[in-house]
Structures are given as structure tokens and as C-alpha cells.
Design goal:
With 458 residues, this protein is of the alpha+beta class. It has helices at 24-28, 48-60, 111-119, 135-141, 148-151, 179-185, 220-230, 273-284, 300-304, 329-339, 389-403, 421-428, 432-442, and strands at residues 15-18, 41-44, 65-68, 84-87, 94-97, 102-106, 123-124, 158-164, 170-174, 194-201, 203-204, 207-216, 238-246, 261-269, 292-293, 296-299, 316-324, 348-353, 375-383. A hairpin with a 5-residue loop joins β8 (158-164) and β9 (170-174). The structure holds flavin-adenine dinucleotide.
Length: 458
């Protein structure tokens, strides 16, 4: 039986939380409140040796091991029934080297913590669009966000990772050391071990010019058609993801549009207001006057945190995701239909660009399988009330099923629920078989299987 007093854990320096502990319920909870799992133990290691001990225990007793970075995973893969959660809360060290332009980040840090540390030097590395997300899961699955078009995915800026492997040893993976592991970590998720630190390249990203432009949802077909023509030709300094939202009832949004259903583009321009205005103009000039053009200059970290208050921990999320090469008129019509039927005030559809610098990397260079696609679509039903779970699930599933014929075949692993082996295989496209071979080298017994799992090649 699994207990926190197991002899295998003698000398453990961090904290072990068992079902008997007062904070067990708090410790087992993850960001998505739809996930309600009861691990046998939550381990918060303080040292590399602690991690090795937990991995050995899981491996030797064949217990499922869930690795938790920021705990944001939609499918709840940062926790597991009956097994052990390796919660990396104590691995949050962040060291910025402004001269070398790198940042070394502990495997349990969140992006907000990283952005604040690097922002002091006017530097940043590509992450996502919400600052509370974990560096671990977001990076290992790829990492797309406001800086994608200019600087690529998070994995395109990863220089090195330190990993506790299934045999308990520590490996450094980079272009020069364990290059096959380094290849697999860049997109292959938590399949290969516990990443205790990441080394990222930094870029000059000081003040950005960004924010949302909103139009009435009734104009979404017109705006989306203009957006699909405009964005691929826009300069890389400009990132803009298309979105369906209901306007939150509070500042900074004007009262007259509170709770109004809208379509929009959320912008991030790396440069001056004047250049940003010029870069956005071809789109804005080709569509009707928006309800709100809420763009302004701000530190990059502020844009990263802009959604944080709206989406706190502990609400229900149902995710679907697909990669998209083109958006034909038939797909636009379906988006207009489902986008106008958001089931709850916080539900959303986002269409993230994955072109620009993300296209400079060949599909074979990292495990991420869709370098040819232009967008990654996310349909997320979101609501604080568990009574609305069926409604948010139905909307996400119906919307994504309707659009599936117009997609590239797979979806982004970081924005999927648990959708079965075929969807995981599809998420990696041409890279799946190589991932399975690397898995067979580093984790032949599938010790790390609580993830979008890549089964070791036989
Ligand atoms: C509100 C919200 C906004 C989001 N926005 C974006 C976005 O803009 N861009 C984007 O790309 N994604 C985004 N995501 C998706 C996000 O990338 C995934 O949910 C990701 O899994 C979160 O990482 P985490 O560390 O917080 O998750 P966790 O639940 O802690 O971990 C998820 C999985 O990642 C692996 N993992 C995590 N840390 C480690 C580690 N150190 N070593 C080994 N494996 C590890 C494990 O397999 C684990 O099961 C968002 C998610 C949410 C909830």
C-alpha cells in the first residue's frame, strides 16, 4: 500500500501529502475543476534526489506518476487517481543572464514568474497568453502565444533541459547532449522524464503595443474573412489571434458593450504605436468600425497577465483543439454559427497564429508535428458552475466536430482533453513513430504514462 512513511522514501527532503493530511484536498486540486482525482500521495520534492526516489517508487511498484508543473492541463494530466503526483512547486528557481540573454527556469515555475524576472531587463522568451500557466507543461507541449510569429514557439527558444529519467538518473538534453531526447522534449510533453530546469533564449521585448479589437458577433464572417487574408502577409512583429468572447462586465471594457457577444482580434505588436497602427491598418480599414479598439502600450508582462483575473483557478473547462492550414468560406460560416452560440459568459474560441518564425523550423527538427499549419484552433467551454458542464462540453464537441473536415488532421496536445490514442498519434503527425522510438530508449516501461501518452516502440 502507498504511504508517506514508505521506507523507499526515507530521507525525503520535501513534503509528502497523504489522504490523511488536512491540506490533501487543496493539494490534489488542479486548475480545471472538472478534474476530481484522488492520488494516493502528492509529493513535493525539494531536491533531485527526492525526485529520483519518487520515480523509483512509482517505477518499482508500477504506480502511475503524474508530473505537475503549473497544474493548468485541461485534461488534468497533472494529477492521477491512486498514484503519486510529483508536484514541482519547490522547483521555481529563475536565473536571468542578461548578458548571455538566457533564463534558467525551474520545472515548477509559472510564466508570470518568468516574465516578471526577465521583464526587469526588457527581455522575454515566447510563452502563452495567460501568466498563471506552468512553464513545464506549456513548453513540453510546444508553447504558442503572443510572441509566436516573431520568435517562434517556446520550444524553438529552448536551449537545454535537465531531466530526471525513468531510471532515476539526471540527464542534460541539448543540441550536443542527448540530442534525441532534446528533439523529443520539444513537443513530446511529459513522456520522457521530470524536467527540473529549462534554459531559454531571451529576446528584447520591452513595451509592446497590444490589446483587443472587438466587433459585433453578427459581423464575424466578414471580419474572419478579412483576418484570414490579412494575417499571413502581416509583418512578424504583429501577432493577432482571432477570438469569440462575451465581453466581461467590468473595466477596462466600456459599459455599453458589457456582456455583449463579440468576435475580435487580440493584438501584440513588438514596436512603436506608430508602426503598430500602420501594421494593423490593412485589416481595420477593410472591415466595419469596431465596437472597441482597446489597444495601447504596455509592458509585455502586463499583456501576458491580461486574462488572468477573468480565468481564475477552480472553474470548469472543456477543451477541443485542431490545427488549421486554410479557412475556407464553409469553415467561416460554421465559425460564425457556433461563435454566436457561446454556451456561457466565459466560453471562448481562439485561433492562434502559428506561422512566421514558427515556420522557420522544419517539421523534422522538433517533435512538434504541424509546422505547415497556419493556425491552432481552441474551443474551450468555460464556466464556474458545475451544473453547466454538459452545456460547455456539448458546445465544444459540436463546434470542433463541425469544423473537423476543414482541419489539418491533428490538434495541439496542450489544448486537448483525453481523446484516445488515435488523436494523440494525429497530434504528432509524421513525428509520432520517431517519438515512440525515443520513448523506448528513455522510458521503455512507460513509467511516465500520465500524459498524452506516447507508447514505447516495441
Ligand atoms: C487558462 C489557460 C490558458 C492557456 N494558454 C495557453 C497558451 O496561451 N499557449 C499554450 O501553448 N498553451 C496554453 N494553455 C495550455 C497549457 O499549455 C497546458 O494546459 C499545459 O499542460 C499547462 O502546463 P502546466 O505545467 O501548467 O500543466 P500541468 O497540469 O502541471 O502539467 C501538464 C502535463 O505537462 C507535463 N509536465 C508539466 N511540467 C513538467 C515538467 N517539469 N517535467 C515533465 N513534465 C511536465 C506532464 O506530463 C503533465 O501531465 C493554457 C491553459 C490554460 C488552462
Amino acid at each position: 500500500m502507498l504511504t508517506t512513511t514508505s521506507p523507499a522514501l526515507a530521507g525525503f527532503q520535501g513534503r509528502l501529502i497523504g489522504v490523511q493530511d488536512a491540506d490533501y484536498d487543496d493539494a490534489r486540486a488542479v486548475y480545471n475543476a472538472m478534474i476530481d482525482k484522488r492520488p494516493g500521495m502528492i509529493a513535493r520534492p525539494a531536491t533531485l534526489e527526492d525526485i529520483a526516489k519518487i520515480v523509483a517508487l512509482g517505477r518499482d511498484q508500477d504506480l502511475p506518476l503524474a508530473i505537475r508543473g503549473g497544474g493548468h492541463n485541461g485534461a488534468g494530466l497533472g494529477t492521477v487517481d491512486d498514484g503519486i503526483v510529483i508536484d514541482l512547486t519547490m522547483f521555481k528557481d529563475i536565473q536571468v543572464d542578461p548578458v548571455a540573454r538566457t533564463v534558467r527556469v525551474g520545472g515548477g515555475a509559472t510564466w508570470g514568474e518568468v516574465d516578471r524576472a526577465t521583464g526587469k531587463y526588457g527581455l522575454a522568451t515566447p510563452s502563452g497568453i495567460i501568466s498563471t500557466t506552468g512553464v513545464g507543461g506549456l513548453t513540453l507541449g510546444g508553447g504558442l502565444g503572443h510572441l509566436t510569429r516573431r520568435f517562434g514557439l517556446s520550444i524553438d527558444n529552448l536551449l537545454e533541459a535537465e531531466v530526471v529519467l525513468a531510471d532515476g538518473s539526471l540527464a542534460r538534453a541539448s543540441a550536443d547532449e542527448h540530442p534525441d531526447l532534446f528533439w523529443a522534449l520539444r513537443g513530446g510533453g511529459g513522456n520522457f522524464g521530470v524536467v527540473t530546469s529549462f534554459l531559454f533564449r531571451l529576446h528584447e521585448v520591452g513595451t509592446i503595443f497590444g490589446g483587443p479589437t472587438f466587433w459585433p458577433v453578427e459581423q464575424s464572417a466578414e471580419v474572419m474573412k478579412a483576418y484570414r487574408e490579412f494575417l499571413p502577409g502581416a509583418s512578424r512583429e504583429l501577432n493577432g489571434f482571432f477570438a469569440f468572447h462575451i465581453v466581461p462586465p467590468g473595466p477596462p471594457f466600456p459599459e455599453e458593450i458589457h456582456l455583449r457577444e463579440v468576435c475580435g482580434v487580440i493584438w501584440c505588436y513588438l514596436g512603436s504605436e506608430e508602426d503598430a497602427t500602420r501594421a494593423m491598418a490593412p485589416l481595420l480599414d477593410s472591415v466595419p468600425e469596431p465596437l472597441m479598439h482597446g489597444v495601447g502600450a504596455m509592458p509585455h508582462a502586463d499583456l501576458q497577465g491580461a486574462f488572468d483575473g477573468l480565468y481564475p483557478r477552480g472553474e470548469q473547462w472543456y477543451w477541443r483543439a485542431d490545427f488549421v492550414d486554410e479557412i475556407p468560406d464553409e469553415a467561416v460560416a460554421l465559425h460564425a454559427k457556433f461563435g454566436a452560440q457561446l454556451p456561457t459568459a466565459k466560453s471562448l474560441m481562439h485561433l492562434y497564429p502559428i506561422d512566421g518564425a514558427a515556420h522557420d523550423v522544419d517539421v523534422a527538427d522538433t517533435a512538434w508535428g504541424y509546422r505547415g499549419s497556419r493556425w491552432s484552433t481552441t474551443y474551450a467551454g468555460v464556466d464556474p458552475d458545475p451544473a453547466n458542464v454538459d452545456a460547455i462540453r456539448r458546445w465544444s464537441v459540436d463546434y470542433s466536430d463541425a469544423l473537423r473536415p476543414y482541419t489539418a488532421g491533428g490538434g495541439y496536445v496542450n489544448m486537448m482533453m483525453e481523446e484516445g490514442r488515435e488523436r494523440i498519434r494525429a497530434a504528432y503527425g509524421p513525428n509520432y513513430d520517431r517519438l515512440a522510438r525515443v520513448k523506448a530508449i528513455y522510458d521503455p516501461h512507460n513509467t511516465f504514462r500520465v500524459n498524452q501518452n506516447i507508447e514505447p516502440a516495441s
